[in-house]
Amino acid sequence: MKLNDIYSGNYNPAEWEAKGYLLPKFDIAKVREKTAKEPTWVHFGGGNIFRAFPAAILNDALNTGKYDRGVIVAETFDFEVIDKAYAPYNNLSLLVSLQSTGTIEKKVIASVTEALKADPQFPDWNRLVEIFRNPSLQMISFTITEKGYTYNEADLARGLKPLFAMGKVCALLYERWQATPSGSSDLSGSSGLPLTIQSMDNCSHNGDKVKAGVFAYAERWVQDGLVPAAFLDYLKDEKKITFPWSMIDKITPRPHEKVKEMLAADGFEDNDYIETEKHTFTAPFVNAEEVQYLVIEDNYTNGRPPLDLGGALYTTRETVDKVETMKVTTCLNPLHTAMALYGCMLGYTLISAEMADEDLRPFIQKIGYMEAMPVVTDPGVLNPYEFIGAVINRRLPNPFMPDAPQRIACDTSQKLPIRFGETLKKYIARGLDKSNLILIPLTLAGYARYLKGIKDDGTPFDCSPDPLLEELQAIVAPLEIGKPDQDWSPLKKLYTRKDIFAVDLYEAGLGEQIEGMVKELYAGPGAVRKTLHKYVSAR
């Protein structure tokens, strides 16, 4: 059983389906032919998240028979991905959905019609220029991580031959602007073919990050006399070019050994691991969690692929922002941080294992449902209670997810103001009863205990990387575990830090409560478990 058998048509569908493989319901050759002539969507970033999510929901849309165009992927960073994960398999891949029950679902993804190396050193660049000059192109999108949107003076100074992704995209947009038919313009006098530039990366207000990057290059090129000012006018004309926001949420871990074994048992042969020189970990198959969300601001200038047929939600910018706020301040990210701090102190190395803990599971449930939920704004398109339910019952317990509290604890000082501070500020602004807050203060108290780098059993552990780690550890350094009568004044220095907690916790009326909890956590070996159990049970 090989992916190329499906591409060539030399296979027995019944054999695949009998083993639980969902096959494409559309004519792969016809979709490729149509897309080659009239492309609608180019996606930058050929990594696992793209194949497991945007490409997969387009595959679902194609399976409905209501759409006939695929997606062209362009890789700007790790060109080996194209050579090793796309070309040998004729751009087909296998999506393996990892169920919280320990089972898997298998789906062949055939929506990618071309895979190109997005750099002028390769012949593929000429094909990209051709695509960008085609009036049929509706959208370009990205999963290149937040770092992919960066730029610097050196790259801006390279002119029309930049190395960074945003510079390459700007160069292709310049090609699109130049492709305007002679004398053609809209009623405003603005020329240029319309296009929507859509980030699908997991970062706040992601459309603005793309816009900032593209504008930086265009403005510099205009300043240096390399392109006319009319090109910049085109990019800034919202009737021509838009940069919508989106919220994306799906975990795609590295290829899992257990998944490889399960596929091999089926007779599926395309299960080799691939590691590139740039340390991209991939395979002909992509394993991903079952739960996924893609909420997109519906602001397109030239039409759009109907990703809603595959489960994407199109809505307003305001609603996208509400969904993201719900996720990062209530329904997911705060729960992650609480589990990370206490998981490290209690000696856990897997988030999924923490979910079987009789104290940790109700700890995060009650933080979400009881303490954070009262200040959540329901975005309307996703129910906050259902979102938390999926997190607690399907996402975090998933045995296939090798996520560790040590990873999630990275940069905690940068995360706390958003993940908990925003909730506290809303309690204060709305005059809500802060005496209802017990487990959020316990999480913040746990931070002072975590910074000691000593587990509940008294053995040391390495705190995860954080830009303020040394500074904050120095604050709690005078405190000793197992010494009840000591000077606790360092806590004042910590919990008045608005840069870390978004509020002065003493001014917020929570400082003394948190101090008391810290004293309990510092009581001696076993005190973390004892204190956690006490407050979770009381709540």
Describe this protein's structure.
This protein is of the alpha/beta class. It has 25 helices and 15 strands. Strands 6-3-2-7-8-9 form a six-stranded parallel sheet, sandwiched between helices. It has a four-stranded mixed sheet with strand order 1-5-4-13. It has a three-stranded mixed sheet with strand order 10-14-15, covered by helices on one side. Strand 11 and strand 12 form a beta hairpin. It is globular, with a radius of gyration of 26 Å.
Beta-strand level of the residues, as a percent range? 5-15%
Strand order of the largest sheet: 6-3-2-7-8-9
Shape: globular
**Helix content bin:** 40-55%
Ranges with pLDDT <50 over ≥5 residues?
182-189
The major β-sheet equals:
6 strands, parallel
Instruction: Please give the alpha-carbon distance between the first and last residues.
Output: 54 Å
pLDDT averaged over residues:
95
User: How many helices?
Assistant: 25
**Structural class of the helix and strand makeup?**
alpha/beta
- For the secondary structure, the number of strands is 15
**Cα radius of gyration in angstroms:** 26 Å
Short description:
By secondary structure, this protein is of the alpha/beta class.
